[in-house]
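WARN  no MSA supplied for this record, continuing single-sequence
INFO  ligand: manganese (II) ion
INFO  echoing inputs
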Amino acid sequence: MNAELDAWISEIVALCQPQNVHIVDGSEEEANTLIQKLIASKTFTPLQRPGSYLARSNPDDVARVEERTFICSERQEDAGPTNNWRAPKEMRNHLIELFQGCMQGRTMYVVPYCMGPLTSPWAKVAVEITDSPYVVVNMRLMAHVGKAALEKLGASSFVRCLHSVGQPLRAGAKDVSWPCNPQQTTIAHFPETGEVMSFGSGYGGNALLNKKCFALRLASCMARQDGWLAEHMLIIGVTNPEGEKKYFAAAFPSACGKTNLAMLTSKLSGWKVECVGDDIAWMHWGEDGRLYAINPEAGFFGVAPGTSMASNPVAMKTIERNTIFTNVALTDDGNVWWEGIGVGKGIEEPQHLISWKGVDWTPASSEKAAHPNSRFTVSISECPILDPSCRAPHGVPISGIIFGGRRSTTIPLVRQAKSWQQGVFFGASMTSETTAAAKGEVGKVRHDPFAMLPFCGYNMGDYFAHWLAQEKPGRHMPAIFYVNWFLKDSETGAFLWPGYSENMRVLRWMFDRIDTRVGAEDSPFGYLPCVKDIARDGKESEATLHKLLSIDKAAWHKEATELQEYFKRFGNALPDILQSLASPGQ
Ligand code: OXD
Ligand code: MN
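INFO  complex generated
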């Protein structure tokens, strides 16, 4: 195999003391054996939909835990003010103690995986070692795992991702369906040595280390060094009625509708959206001076609640088969259910379910049937609107970058940056009301620059500078936009914009702006659409559109003052231009 990998496996066997070692080959046969094992351990319940299973986690292991996630760079200032930092040596010693003997009685899986199309020059191979078969079957859907990845790796070095659920099975002990160790959960990144060590959680981004840990936190450090961008962005292709196509990349904080936008079904006749990815984009500059994006993932790990035939019919089709559901509710006929699933289909709320906690649930229950951060894991090849260039080795050319957040006030429906610098400022100034994707209070406005707050592996001030430095002579800079689908009427509290498939009307404006086929109002806040240019569907009044597209100067002034204060935390690392663009009235 690979001498470095051999040596690492021996080292981890000595440390974690597993009962067996299994090198994952990525075959169907192997997947079937693992699934049988997960059924036998009651981690998986087979569902009445082909190739699909339900897993229920421990109720204390349901989301990413940002307060237990660390960047362990040699210098604290390289982690910056938005990350938890520990000195690498101190953290390594702490983790080595935790990992000592932690896989006793369990099988240790070695999962070589490739992020990005196997034939792409931008793809990267890494290896995750884990004692969770649940992680292995999920990773199989999210990345190219096994032999093909090993072949691509050859004798090269690789990023080492070590994961354990942190619950050894001592002789005679009975296993549980979701082993974990929430009290000791620690997710540590070592950007300078290319390592991730994660202990104690089996859930999502804490355990599927290929996703947030590698493809964002470590990759963002690699990207800074090598002049590219690793971003928390979906990628879509938009085609107009004339058959012209443009690709957009869009960054939104967790659970703000990224998957819905990535799979949008257009209601505007002749317009079409196709999906390249729903969460992460790796972007490199091509020889022609354009920015090209690949999706490093091979699958979706989407939030289930709220997904319905009304909000995202494409996702509903994508998850009809071969899907792992985690923490959704189970119907009496062996299918899945979550809050909002029936919208648009007229399905009535069932009278009885087994909730995500595995207990009886009725409409009178005070708790939700599905956990708000319950998820589906499914291969991207199940998506019926997969873009034909989804696996293009050099990626797709990006014409527009969209930033956005969930804000009930202040931020208008859409505006366009007047320059790359102002666009970078848009990204840096992103704020959003928090959701259930991370542990903590829901509904609070927090700064989430570029939707990278939990995912940037280095000093965010340096990250802003890296974005500004992308503008160079000879490059065709993508247009940059900022959207907010979530404005509410201050009197009624109702959403002002219908969202979902209606967002196509905003995409259309952006598409046409890129070719300057449509005008805009010039303002210090960017270019704003003229009301007449947002195709009306007769649902909202002109007055509503005015509300959606206007700027409340007093609220903006408050926002800008607060933003200037926020920016101060980056100290000298903050590029001066961003502080001056934050000045009220700029
Ligand atoms: C995700 C997230 O899981 O952003 O994609 O939290
Ligand atoms: Mn995400």
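The domain at 300-382 is CATH 2.170.8.10 (Phosphoenolpyruvate Carboxykinase; domain 2).
INFO  checksum written, moving to next record
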